[in-house]
């Protein structure tokens, strides 16, 4: 679907939507995403009888057909509105329209910090009653990446190193990250996830502004200067 760098760049779109239009979309689609999250948990936890499971399947199929009647053909991409407000609504870690994403509501500070109180339900289980290690990695990748963005040096994850110090319980959790240092095009960010017993997973990430973005910025600077 997005095989080349130029395919990727096409998915960064300035669609000029006003803040009001963006808010209207958020108010419409956010609750839909929450409903689907509820459906995912219900699918996992239900113990109803066979006929009710079959009926639920038919209803879900009907809902999916209704939604598919008009739909974008591929990934959502990253979009900006007229005021510069960014929407990564397809993002697997925190996308407003992505029911696979745990709702993270990451808060950031301009000094390169990010933090979030979040809740992981049974759909994020790995070992019995515990968070899947890959899910912890997903969340830390996003929180560390957002810290890099907040500090003004965004980048793609080049390397993410994790240390699983103790099992992460499902339920209420907290994650935070801060920019440790910037080395040229690389931003090194550190962070962790903690539960009620303390830090469960520590992370260090190297975020790199990709070559194509560096070239686009250099081109833009040259045309502004000229
Ligand atoms: C409009 C702009 C948008 C920009 C984007 C913003 C995204 C905002 C997202 C918000 C938060 C998201 C949080 C989740 C973020 C993901 O999930 S990103 C998805 C996972 N990551 C990927 O798919 C990345 C795949 N890899 C790549 O695209 C490229 O290899 C990279 C990482 C961009 C580097 O490519 P490059 O820019 O061509 O790198 P290159 O010029 O060869 O090297 C530059 C420097 O980086 C070092 N380096 C290269 N690769 C690595 C590596 N893997 N590890 C460590 N160091 C490395 C080099 O040694 C070099 O160091 P110095 O010589 O400068 O000291």
TrEMBL record:
The signal sequence is none
Q: Where is the Thioesterase domain?
A: 129-187
Q: Where in the cell is it found?
A: Cell projection, Ruffle membrane; Cytoplasm; Membrane
Pfam families assigned to the protein according to its UniProt record, in alphabetical order? 4HBT
Q: Which InterPro entries match?
A: HotDog_dom_sf, THEM4/THEM5_acyl-CoA_thioest, Thioestr_dom
Cite the Gene3D superfamilies for this sequence: Hotdog Thioesterase
- Keywords on record: Apoptosis, Cell membrane, Cell projection, Cytoplasm, Fatty acid metabolism, Hydrolase, Lipid metabolism, Membrane, Transit peptide
**Source organism, top-level taxon:** Bacteria
Instruction: Cite the EC number.
Output: 3.1.2.2
Q: Which reaction does it catalyse?
A: hexadecanoyl-CoA + H2O = hexadecanoate + CoA + H(+); octanoyl-CoA + H2O = octanoate + CoA + H(+); (9Z)-octadecenoyl-CoA + H2O = (9Z)-octadecenoate + CoA + H(+); decanoyl-CoA + H2O = decanoate + CoA + H(+)
CDD domains named among the record's database cross-references: PaaI_thioesterase
First-level EC class: hydrolase
Topology relative to the membrane: Peripheral membrane protein
> Is Cytoplasm among this UniProt entry's keywords?
yes
Main localization category? membrane
Query: What family name appears in the similarity comment?
Result: Belongs to the THEM4/THEM5 thioesterase family.
Q: Tell me what this protein is called.
A: Acyl-coenzyme A thioesterase THEM4
Origin organism is: Rhodococcus olei
């Amino acid at each position: 679907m997005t095989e080349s760098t130029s395919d990727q760049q096409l998915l960064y779109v300035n669609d000029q939507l006003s803040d009001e239009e963006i808010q209207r979309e958020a108010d419409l689609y956010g609750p839909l995403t929450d409903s689907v999250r509820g459906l995912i948990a219900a699918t996992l936890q239900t113990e109803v009888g066979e006929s009710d499971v079959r009926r639920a399947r038919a209803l879900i199929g009907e809902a999916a057909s209704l939604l598919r009647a008009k739909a974008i053909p591929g990934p959502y991409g990253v979009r900006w509105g007229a005021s510069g407000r960014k929407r990564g609504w397809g993002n697997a870690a925190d996308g407003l329209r992505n029911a696979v994403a745990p709702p993270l509501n990451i808060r950031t500070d301009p000094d390169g910090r990010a933090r979030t109180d979040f809740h992981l339900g049974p759909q994020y289980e790995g070992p019995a009653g515990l968070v899947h290690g890959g899910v912890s990695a997903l969340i830390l990748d996003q929180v560390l990446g957002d810290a890099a963005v907040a500090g003004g040096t965004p980048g793609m994850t080049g390397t993410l190193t994790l240390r699983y110090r103790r099992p992460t319980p499902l339920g209420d959790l907290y994650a935070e990250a801060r920019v440790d240092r910037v080395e040229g095009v690389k931003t090194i960010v550190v962070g962790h996830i903690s539960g009620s017993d303390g830090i469960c997973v520590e992370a260090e990430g190297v975020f790199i502004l990709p070559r194509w973005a560096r070239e686009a910025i250099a081109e833009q600077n040259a045309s502004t200067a000229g």
